[in-house]
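OP here, attaching both records as promised.
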Amino acid sequence: MGELLGKVLVVDDDEVIRQLIAVNLTLEGFQVETASDGQDCLNRVLDVMPDVITLDVMMPRLDGWMTATKLRDNEETRHIKVLLITARAQEDDRRRGMDIGVDAYLTKPFDPAELIQVVRDLALAAHSG
């Protein structure tokens, strides 16, 4: 087993998608934890302390926008790289994400290879800075 590439917290209310992302990243060499929605993510993020969070936008309880905002507003989590994954990729959605300070954006349905590349880049950036 090679060196771990980093730790990722996968947040999605759809269990199938959550598992798909988790399996792909685990096979790639990441340590993966999962959360079922934004509130679950916020409850666990300080225990997990991931390098990268993949965050679905449309979720019950706390959506991806609010979750990302809360992560950025917290001194202890503001450095974590956030990848928003959404079926909505209109320009104003992207702008909203950039305003919040998310690091990357991926549209569903996504190509697993692209997901891995984006997460790898974010993890590298997390470790170099």
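Record two, same layout:
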Amino acid sequence: MIVEDELLVALDLETIVEDSGHQFDGPYVSVAETNEALDLRMPQCAILDVRLKDGEVFPVADRLRAAQVPMIFHSGHADVTHLLERYPGSQICNKPSTPKQLRTALEIALA
């Protein structure tokens, strides 16, 4: 699952996920839209921007954590210490990230 409200960044993430041999769902641009998608199906992994069109992603991340879905936070506004305390085991890729960093985070999350 890709949760990202910047179109060009979302397109880059889609390419990285596909080039890594995986399928993606999304991109979703808001907390509300993402929660609607989660009502239908939980993903195997989620790449999350922190700031979305309608607020911060944390309600979505809390729901994913409760379902034990691995998460990769991909944001330029991430407090890494706070994220790792609140979501232990999650991967953090600060924007801008290289494709290699994102592929590595994806491999770790799906392992």
